[in-house]
Structures are given as structure tokens and as C-alpha cells.
Amino acid sequence: MCGRFNVIDSPGLRQLLRDLGIDLQLPQAINVAPTEPVSLVRESAGERQVDPARWWLTPSWAREVDQKYAMFNARSETLATSRAFRQPFRSQRGIVPMSSFVEWRVEGGVKQPWLITTGHQALAVAALWDVWEGGETPLLSCTLVTTAAAPAFEPWHSRMPVILAPDEYERWLDHSQEIAPGDSIFRSRLKLALRLQPLSRAVSNPRNKAMQLLQGTGDMVELPAGPAA
């Protein structure tokens, strides 16, 4: 599951963009929520580019743009069989760069948000995109791919975003390469060490966009990178 994330200019984010062949600075975005615009890295006509995309996939065949179904995340296990995701999975894969994301777990009867980051590296999260042309102008939208949580992450959530390792960027973006649903890209493991820290519950309101939201309110937990169970 991934329902909020942040983009903050940093050496780690700039390095990720260089690794992706992108020469620009992404706009800062705090507490990004589904249906809001995100920066999508994709290949089009053989060129690597960054485009603003609506974070909630609208399939090209949809009658209208709506939120009837939760299309901001896509389960890796059903990418090849889902009507909405199977075509993008074959030929419309992208990457959403982010500095951190937020996850919630129930503690003491309330949902406590946690900030998840590497501490210094930015995150390259696997995404799928599509273009809907049923309105006055084409709508580019995307969804973030999720997989079953790595064992160390399970105390926070049963799902986690598919965070790509540097040696997976090219293969994920190269639409000439077929990727199977059971590919190692989707394995339930921590490819990078993660740092987790509780946040103020004010982050639960998507209208709150202040940088102060990302200040930790408790002790940090560190999860080392490691293999799947």
C-alpha cells in the first residue's frame, strides 16, 4: 500500500534523476495524495522524459474519470490479468521518484502515521501509466505498483510499494523487455535499508502540505536491507 509520499530536493534525489537520465529539478511536493499530480518518468518514442500525471489510473477505455475503484495502487500479483493494468504492464511502465512515503498502523486504537525513507537515497517506485482521451484534452494518469510486504516491514503494513534497485531501472522502463508477474523485481524483500519514524497525525489530512509535517514525533526504527523470507 502507498497512499502518501513526498518529494524534496536533495543530493539523493538529484542522483536518482541522473541515474535515470533526467536533467531537471523536480518540484517539491509534500503529503502528496491520490488524484494529485505527480512526476512520472517514462520512455516515449525512444526518449526518457518526465511528465505530470494524475495519481489514480484512468484506463484508456474508461467511460469517464472517476474514483469508483481504487486505482492509485496496482497489485503486482494481478498486473497481467487485470483489465485495467495488463496493457500498461506490457508497454507503459514508468517510475515515480520520491524522497519518502507514509504508512499507517493501528497503535493504541488509533491510526499512527510513519514516515519511511532511506535516510539519504531517493526511492524509485515502479508505476504504470495510461492516457485517457475522452475529454477535451488527453489525461495522463498513473498507478504505483505494490507487492507483499517484506517480513521486516509487515509490522507496519501487509503491502509495500515496489521500490526498484538501480540495476532494475533500465529493464523496467524498456518496453521491449517482457516482465513476468513473478519476476524478481516484485519479490518481498527490502532492496534498500529503510528508516521509519512516527509523525504527527496531522499528515492524515491531505490538505496539510507544510514541511513541518515530516518532523518525527518519536524514536526512529531502522530496517536493514535483506533477502525475502
Write the layout of secondary structure elements.
Elements: E1 4-7, H1 11-19, E2 29-32, E3 37-44, E4 47-55, E5 73-75, H2 86-91, E6 93-98, E7 100-107, E8 110-117, E9 123-132, E10 139-148, E11 159-161, H3 169-173, E12 194-198, E13 221-223
Parallel strand pairs: 4-10, 5-10
Antiparallel strand pairs: 1-2, 1-7, 3-4, 6-9, 7-8, 8-12, 9-10, 10-11, 12-13
Taken from the alpha-carbon principal axes, the silhouette is globular
Order of helices and strands: EHEEEEHEEEEEEHEE
Q: What's the name of the CATH homologous superfamily?
A: SOS response associated peptidase-like
CATH class: Alpha Beta
Oligomer: single chain
Assigned CATH architecture = Alpha-Beta Complex
- What structural category characterises the helix and strand content? mainly beta
Low-confidence sequence ranges: none
End-to-end Cα distance: 19 Å
Mean pLDDT: 95
List the domain count as a whole number.
1
